[in-house]
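Structure ticket #2291
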Amino acid sequence: QVQLAESGGGLVQAGGSLRLSCAASRRTISTNTMAWFRQAPGKERELVAAISFSGTNTIYADSVKGRFTISRDNAKNAVYLQMDSLKPEDTAVYYCAGGRITAYDKSLYDYWGQGTQVTVSS
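Resolution: structure written out below.
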């Protein structure tokens, strides 16, 4: 069982930046797609960004394209989400997840972290 631990969340003003990190307990993630999802109160959990095991294929939600960047370091069993030009609507709990396919569908991801809160004030 792979365990994921997110960090880097917090409170930031609109227009600011945050960098989320996800640390994995095992090297298994080096062969998996890794992703960041988010869930705001009263809303469905949605994909923010995903990256293939090699890092060559990435996908993003339309709402974050050009502002967020996903990356990974397989040697460190880690995945990152650089978030720039943050908006109040980016406020949510952000989750790290791993799976076998680079996809938008959350049901295709097999393991999840506990989440980290990101709050963007206006």
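Closing remark: The CA atoms of residues 47 and 122 lie 23 Å apart.
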